[in-house]
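Milestone M4 deliverable, item 7.
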Amino acid sequence: MHKHRSDLTCLAVEYGAKGVLTEKPMAHTLAEADRMVQVCAEANVPLCCGSITTTHPSFAQAKKLIRDGVIGEIISIEAGGPFAQHQNWSYFSDSSPLWVVGTGDAARRESGSNEFTGSGILVMEDGLTIHFRQGAPGVRLSGSEGEIIFNYQSGWRLWQDIETLSGMQRVEMPWPKPQFFSPYGAVYCLSDVLDCLAGTMIEPKNSGRRVALA
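Output delivered:
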């Protein structure tokens, strides 16, 4: 069915769909993904792709902490190999890729997607560096004044640089709710689309635009 998602998405928009949810993979080729994004954008139709971890409300909380400067300026992002394809990392970058280099442990399919388990470095246009490697957490956000780490099993953890009697130390702090928990699912994708239609969200957390960019 994923071979036809691009056509079905475009037809749905043509016939008046107000929002579109797809499962992963979003499309069979990058050209198909770009077409889906363009058609939805031109019609102002929110496009959400894949009921993955990024759609959970706790990711919005993590991004708010970053915007509020809780861990200072973001220096780098790190993600485990398989999670590179889940786009957890891309939710925390609003820039575009500049260049990428990496190695994989299996041949890439001619089309479609498969879980990437290799290692690589991605540099964004704003200078942010993103590392993909085996053994890394789902996503690690390293800042000038702290760190935020997400793992599927344990959820979110937060460290901040705090002035103590012994000097400046990086101390683990309580994570503000909501905390990540499983199972997660399409209900969060639907919630994002409804929020977009209500005007309280610009685009879904795992929008088609972010997926195509990643």
